[in-house]
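Researcher: Last one for today. Full complex below.
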Amino acid sequence: MSEVVAPISNPSSIPDSKLPQAKPSRSLWSDGVLRLKRNKAAVVSLGFIILICLCAAFAEFVAPYSFETQNIDHTLEGPSASHWLGTDGLGRDLLSRIIFGARMSMSVGILTAIMSLLIGGIYGAVSGWFGGTVDSVMMRFVDILEAVPSLLLLILVMVIFNAINIFENPELRALTGIFLAVSVVGWLGLARLVRGQVLQVKEQLFVEAARAMGAPGRLILWRHVFPNILGPIIVLLTFQIPSNVLFESFLSFIGLGLQPPYSSWGVLANDGWRAKSYPHLILFPGLALYLTMLAFNLLGDGLRDAFDPKMKNR
Amino acid sequence: MSHQTGALIGRIFGWGVIALIVLGVAFDLGEFEIPAAYWYALVGWCFVSAGWAIVRQNLLIYVTRRLLGAFLVTFIIATATFLLLRYLPGGPFDTEKALPPEIKANIEAKYGLGDPLPTQYVNFMTKLVQGDLGESYKYLGRSVSDIISETLPVSFQLGFYSLLLAFTIGIPLGVFAASKHNTWLDTAAMFLAISGVALPSFIIGPMLVMMFSFGVPFSFMHGMLPPALWEGPLYYILPVLTLGMRPAAIIARLTRSSVLEVIRSDFVRTAKAKGVAEMTVLYKHVLKNSVIPVLTISGPLVAGILSGTFVIEIIFAVPGMGKHLVQSVTNRDYPLILGVTLVYAVMLVVANLVVDILYTVVDPRIKLS
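Model: Here's the assembly. Have a good evening.
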């Protein structure tokens, strides 16, 4: 980042155009973007994530077969020219199932992360902003929820939701259940983070100045506090998405989430695990999951280094 | 008492705990029956050591307050779970084939499910205070305490060995990567670590089984390790490896960054300047000062391992408590759900308290209040 500026002996003798121009001022954000661009692993990861998301969004056009078309003549085949990643026990094309699975897994991961952000963000902001008794009561509640193993919470919500049985469509029911369960578990960390950040920022001078000028609390929160805590929130969100994808896969893996013939990476992992001696059935879904997790983690690290320099190397 | 004597006594307590644990591990791995006296010694020694640490660091008030808080949290969790279960649509005896109403009423009367809710709650709480968790609805004639005391040790073993593995792999790997900072070795070690974070246990577990038990793709590995069950040290390897991998990776990453931070500090430069050997600096000066962030994360790590045992127990058919976590909920086995939840919650709370006390022991500069 060092920019050598030649010493100027006699400024008046140099024409204006030769004078060193002031560096265009860069905001915190463009600085961060620049730092992020220099991080090759993060850029590649971002590209990979976009690719996966595109595949997921246009699964019908990308996937060579449908996720539920069975072909009894070609079951449990290894990779071949017509089925690139082989077929499963009912002759369904594994590549297509992985692509359609990406749709399920990614949409759950991203939507639940946003949901957790909304719940946790508002909760944490309120708690941190009001402070005092409100803060300690609200945070005790988070403490209690954290002492219940998240797994149990997840399972409880799923079971309750399945018992209430709102939707007829099994896919829709499973999805909404997963969605609710994962959101309920995921917001705790975000609430803690946002609260801590708000507590820190609200004591700073520019907030005090805004308050002295008579800005209403809502405005201060939105215009002054929020932009200042956005960096850490984005970073945590990047780590939240993969962990939510894992939660979904995990729920489907233990049979509480999505069921075949619908496809998600967890369903596929479960299929692969049951099929024991056909390694391609677990290898490829596993690889998809692993690469996605890896990409999100690398991107998260890159984002943290770029936008949250205090946390560098953590 | 002089400062030195105090420090010496603390050290004796600390090494005593470690020695006892090593002894226990040796017993267990050597497949000896662990005598009851060992457990008394271990628990007693731990209590005395903790007491010493508490008195010496002036933590009495802090610990009392934390314990009271822990009781409150446990109480609230018990109440909330109780209420949640009672308001859940459907009951524990709604079977596929509807039972004749008289029989169902009889069963529900036996377990006191027909009583008004406040009565049920008072009954439940008075029993809980006496340490009686009630009788399972599905495992007829067996008390929840029996089921838990039978399965918890297995889960505990699994979790303990995984945590041990995580620390013994994670810390050296992190120190190694930091000492080779900005070389390909560092990059490789950190890639390994981030892969460990990115690989879910339900993928790596089945793959390890495939490799070491079924001999895919290398047939000479066929039957090398048992694919499932929990009957001896050989059976521990795959589940423990699967469960310990992720925490090991997290610890390695944290250790590395922490070491990198400490390495730049003045006292390390002084040590190097006066000619202390590189290795001695790394292990005596740097590592000791970098373990605190690692300790900070071990509370959440324990929580992760607690939840993690459950998946591992499914994949490897380990007869632990995790199985009941899901089955009890789907079975609506109320007493068992409550028992399992409470055990998990208590373990979590205790683990966090122990970690907090350990901070002050490792770094006396930290003052808890």
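Residues 68 and 74 of chain B are 10 Å apart (CA to CA). Chain B touches chain A through 47 residues (CB under 8 Å).
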